[in-house]
Amino acid sequence: MAAISIFDRLLGSLLGSYMGHCYQTVCDPINHLQPCGFEDSLLYQAWSSQVCQLRVLEFDPANADPIVVLPWLLYRHDDRSLRHSELAQLLMPISAEKVNDTLGALYLLGDCLEWLMQCSLATQEPLALLCQYVRHHQSEYPEILRSQFDCWVSSLSRGGFNDRLMHDEDELDGALVSVIIAIQQCLSYRENLAIALANPVLSQSTLTAVGCFLGAWGGTAIIPTQWMLTIPGDTRRSICVFAEKIYREWAGILSVSGSLEIIPLDL
Q1: How would you write 191-237 as a 3-class SS string?
Q2: Nearest CA among 21, 72, 7 for reference residue 235
Q3: Distance between CA 36 and CA 129 in Å, rounded?
Q4: Burial of 39 (0-12, 13-18, 19+ CB in 10 A)
Q5: In this predicted model, what pLDDT tens digit does every residue of 38-63 receive, in sequence order?
Q6: 11 with 220: CB under 8 angstroms?
Q7: Which of 214, 238, 177, 168 lies closest to 8, judged by CA?
Q8: Which of 2, 76, 114, 262 could form an S-S bond across to 83 if both were Cys, CB 3.0 to 4.6 Å?
Q9: In terms of residue numbers, what domain contains 195?
Q10: Is residue 266 assigned to a domain?
Q11: Which residue, among 96, 73, 97, has the nearest Cα to 208 in the 3D structure?
């Protein structure tokens, strides 16, 4: 299998998130996608702000979906120490349950993206390897979150979330659970984004995270061609600009001429 550039993984993650975000508006999801108005969405507004600063300190864990800081997570995808350090600054002296849940989701979302961005789509037994990776770095999480991760990573390693989701949808609520269900769905259906999203009980936030993960793992190739063709030109250009900005900052490219094509440095 050919190597996937970092730029293609960044673009794939943003496009996959957009597709997952729009998925609930689809009439015939496998064969036809009706993308939502991206430029008018809260997701676009949040990403626009994130791409301009690529910081997480303005994020409000009490009121925001973790996926809104995806540009920052992608920018910091290979710097776990700095990513964890910046997330720790969002912890309050006495954090509310919702704050802890959202921050837990951000830690896990970032660590899963880091693992996916460095792995081949052909990796064997990815769930076991990912759980091993997360457990290896679990001591780096804030003390207030570690007990949660013991429980959820153990559940993830048993692969039981999707079965429980069919029967206990109310019980499995929250940002952290949404991320866990999304990564399990991504690892189980790596062939194509349309297959990975084809679960009628997944919430919009979970679908968005599924697209985020699978795009980071397999790049733009995992998105069905017919779906790519339905993306409005303005939306495609906006997402490409976001990906280029993140890539330039990550690669240390201060400026790129408008007449030059970006060549991924990792190939």
Answers
A1: CCHHHHHCCCCCCHHHHHHHHHHHHHHHHHHHCCHHHHHHCCHHHHH
A2: 21
A3: 35
A4: exposed
A5: 676 778 888 888 888 787 767 777 77
A6: yes
A7: 214
A8: 76
A9: 6-251
A10: no
A11: 73
d(CA 255, CA 243): 14
CATH, residue 44: 1.10.4080.10
Range with the poorest average pLDDT among 67-81, 146-160, 233-247: 146-160
Q: How many domains, in total, are found in the chain?
A: 1
Q: Which two tokens stand for residue 183?
A: 């990564």
Residue 1 has pLDDT above 70, yes or no: no
d(CA 251, CA 56): 19
- CA distances to 136, 148, 210 from 154, rounded to whole Å, are 13, 10, 20
Is residue 263 included in any domain, yes or no? Answer: no
* Token pair belonging to 19: 């597709």
CA dist., res. 109 & res. 148, Å (int): 14
26-35, 147-156, 215-224, 245-254: range with highest mean pLDDT: 215-224
